[in-house]
Amino acid sequence: MTSAPFDTQLAACAQRTEAFLIARLDGLTAAPRLTDAMRHGALGGGKRLRPFLVEASARLFGVEEREYLAAGAALEMVHCYSLVHDDLPDMDNDHLRRGKPTVWKAYDPALAILAGDALLTEAFRVLTDPQLIADSETRSELVAALAVGSGPDGMVAGQVLDIEGETKRLDEDDIFKMQALKTGALIRTGVEMGAILGRADVETRAALVLYGVHAGLAFQIADDILDVTASSHALGKTVGKDVEQNKSTIVSLRGVDGAREILEHAVEQGIRALNGFGQDAEILRILIRHFAEREH
Amino acid sequence: MTSAPFDTQLAACAQRTEAFLIARLDGLTAAPRLTDAMRHGALGGGKRLRPFLVEASARLFGVEEREYLAAGAALEMVHCYSLVHDDLPDMDNDHLRRGKPTVWKAYDPALAILAGDALLTEAFRVLTDPQLIADSETRSELVAALAVGSGPDGMVAGQVLDIEGETKRLDEDDIFKMQALKTGALIRTGVEMGAILGRADVETRAALVLYGVHAGLAFQIADDILDVTASSHALGKTVGKDVEQNKSTIVSLRGVDGAREILEHAVEQGIRALNGFGQDAEILRILIRHFAEREH
Which of A123, A148, B269, B270 could form a disulfide with B288 if both were Cys (CB 3.0 to 4.6 A apart)? Predict the structure, then answer.
């Protein structure tokens, strides 16, 4: 890794990802209103943490920027699609996202459903572009990893368990399982995609996945804490939704202090998983601490 | 191809596809209610015409059943996801599909959104399973073709143009473009997936794609004619929706007789595209006539 400060590296990754997404979306001309709604859902917001996870993991293996940028952007498209669908009236019914109207508010619910579908589908197309990722085995494994992380064995399953948690009491195990799927799966997938791009051996890939699991846990618990402690203004989205929707979270079960303890433990375990990587993985250590300490 | 009658071959393909989907869905245990909703949307209905297109095309090249079955099932999952989302209250607001309640009616709209998302995502996972499709280049190309056919350069774009057609008058060119994307793209993709599995050369693949374009056109025009001539009972879904929703179709522009002429022409063109294939492609010739003459 370069020695540039963390914030500089993160901002540079976000800028590259934004440019990639802009160019990619500009190429979609079949239905202009659809592309506009996709732009609304995918551009101009977000810290692009998931692409940065792909990048930080891939750079451990000397992967070329062109390849990790494409993989990171595909992962971000999946993340953005999930937000577009999550915000729908039939789902969370959210009006505000990253400080601007959600896609269904800016357009209409039908177009938001289709824009989400299109972002998801296009992500898989990006991963199979031989101009972007040279090796076909790598392309195929990236698609498989993204499908596992985002589909019915991953993120979507977590969303269903999350909705079920609104009407039944979840115990701590249920909550950990739900969160590992809902938020954790895509974060883990990001680190895993870097390992796939790097053709890492089984043990190395497993160590990075273990780091990713703890990074996902840290991210989610920090999010739950912010939901009760932050302001709407700082967060750029509606806060207090968990309590309002009667959602079970680690915070509702353990309180803020109890949640902070679990958060600290997750950060320690994540950093421990990186023991074999030495100084090269410093950016991943900083990243998991960043997840834990973020204020928005 | 075997010499079994068309109907027998079609039914056998449907049975194999159903069995494949049942087994695949049984393997998804993370969120049981999600899997149930996916089953509701994917199992027990449909003639599985798209998997049969993959099979009929792939068998021109001696592709193994294991491979074309997986590719056909993946295509069918995408078709089913599109129906699940199409039926949503914010989209077509349909209550009946294949003679049973739509997924959102049987469950709820949120679960229908997520079940659709999950079917789409899982389709790409199926295509990248090395146990099902041996060659990585083939897996990657199948994903790319399916993403192009179903995403913002294909089916989803067509759905957006179709919705726009409810509030503005479409001319004949607009309607052909919309239909080529909305219905045609997946049908074309089915034939194309067979060619990809068979590692067909560029010219052979192009000839099959041309056939697929005309097969898609024939399928859609026949559908539009049925919407004004068939009964709800025969069709297993609500009819007369096009007129009710003020949708522009070839039938609304040219009348039933005019539409039948265009349909006949599409069948001829599709059959002409198969000239280089001789007797091997007979099943594809029967298939496009079946599209044109179907009564439900």
Answer: B270
